[in-house]
Amino acid sequence: MNQLAKNLACEWAKDNIRTNSVGPWFIRTPLAEPLLNDEKLLEEVKWRTPMGRIGEPKEVSSLVAFLSLPAASYISGQTICVDGGFTVNGFFFP
Length: 94
What we know:
Layout (H helix, E strand, L loop, with lengths): L1 H11 L8 E4 L8 H4 L2 H10 L8 H11 L11 E4 L3 H4 L5
Parallel strand pairs: 1-2
């Protein structure tokens, strides 16, 4: 998805079309709830997330809303992670 956003951004820029993608980590949604109900998995996810919590849907939707505003008119070809710092923390396995 990261590369697709970049390729489409380059291809469609001449038509004034911006392309970005959003990379969420665990977000508290109905689809994720069965996983998050597993206390062991929930604690593992929180431990691996620098912010120490699960994301909320509004945190993702706010980013998507921002990307559709004129304020983001010069942002294209980016993948923005909504992950509480998970990707910058690395994939450490004890």
